[in-house]
Amino acid sequence: MRVVIAEDAVLLRAGVERLLADEGIETVAAVDRGDELVGAVTEHRPDLAIVDVRMPPTFTDEGLRAALAAREAVPGLPVLVLSQYVEESYAVELLSGGAGGVGYLLKERVADVADFLDAVRRVARGGTAIDPEVIAQVMARGRKNPLDALTARESEVLGLMAQGLSNSAIAASLVVSHGAVEKHIGNIFAKLGLEASAEEHRRVRAVLTYLGRP
């Protein structure tokens, strides 16, 4: 796997590079400004871009704006945002602007290296990895919920899917059987009108619907 990192904190950038290198993941470019990200992904065509939100020169939302521009320049580019903040407007646009390959993790809540590396691989494959706090803030925007047909348990299962949990992890979290989780997910697909296709693709589409994609 080949990645581009956009992060202005030198120690954090170096730490992420080292973690990835230990797993055989190559960092083909590491930049410290959002406006350098587009050029880096256009040149290297990586499997994933890992992007901070607040970067020079204004330290507001340069990273997210750059991530959106990078996805326009390289359609389908998987992007994992790793930030201290939830910038709602741009987060919604990023999370709802494609068919998957998106993640948004809060730095202070990434406490487990294995979980972080799992998120890196999942997003690079076209899946999702969304921090529960990001989901909460996005859903609090008050947009019309297209998921009223789901039961409370189905909504709970879909919320855990949005966090990137596997069926087995969802079963363990809810203390139910693997078969029960599969049944709930089947009901979710049916109620959202997601016809049979690749399982991963339907999961991504369901998660994007949960996050408010039109």
Automatic annotation (TrEMBL):
SUPFAM superfamilies: C-terminal effector domain of the bipartite response regulators, CheY-like. InterPro entries: CheY-like_superfamily (IPR011006), NreC/VraR/RcsB-like_REC (IPR058245), Sig_transdc_resp-reg_C-effctor (IPR016032), Sig_transdc_resp-reg_receiver (IPR001789), Tscrpt_reg_LuxR_C (IPR000792), WalR-like (IPR039420). Pfam families: GerE, Response_reg. Residues 2-122 form the Response regulatory domain. Gene3D superfamilies: 3.40.50.2300. It comes from the Bacteria. This is Response regulator transcription factor. It comes from Amycolatopsis tucumanensis.
